[in-house]
Task: structure prediction
Amino acid sequence: MQVASVTVSDNKVLTASVTGGKAFLKTVEAGGVDVEFTGIDGRKEKLRVWVRVPFYMWRSLVNHATYKPQVKVKIADAALSAAVTKELTEKLAKPYYINFRNEDSAWYFNIPETQRFTAWYSYKDLRFILKVNGETNEYKVLTHKDRKILGLEQDLTTRYQALHPGKGVELVVTVEYVQDQLPPG
Result:
């Protein structure tokens, strides 16, 4: 059908345009929407469209020239300090990506295993909370001049103080970087 016009019941879910007799649809957010196409011959076709694809993805940067994962540890016990630094450095060196599916769920993938986990997230006031495999992690989001790159700072001090009381845990903070990768279109 050569398309003359296209209408969408909810522009918050999907936007539409016509160029050269072809309809172009662009996802905005998850949801269901009615789309009506009108042909140049006056025929009408109506579709119900469900938008459920990942809208964007974060990919961890582990070997980036500028944005390298960081571990900051200040623990009085030298052996524990070295062990925590090693543990967290190894954890941050493992690449992953997150496909955000809708307003609060995502797929979390370890690379290269490509093992997929259902994840839940919330994002507000530069705070990102990610729940994967029963573990909840809260991050402060750090913005940079390169708008496609975000830093995720996680303060683990309280967690390590509880795990190792009396060992002089003063500071345990990690910073990892993710690149925002939008889908084509």
Notes: Residues 78-92 form the longest helix (15 residues). Helices lie at 78-92, 157-163. Residues 154 and 177 are 11 Å apart (CA to CA).
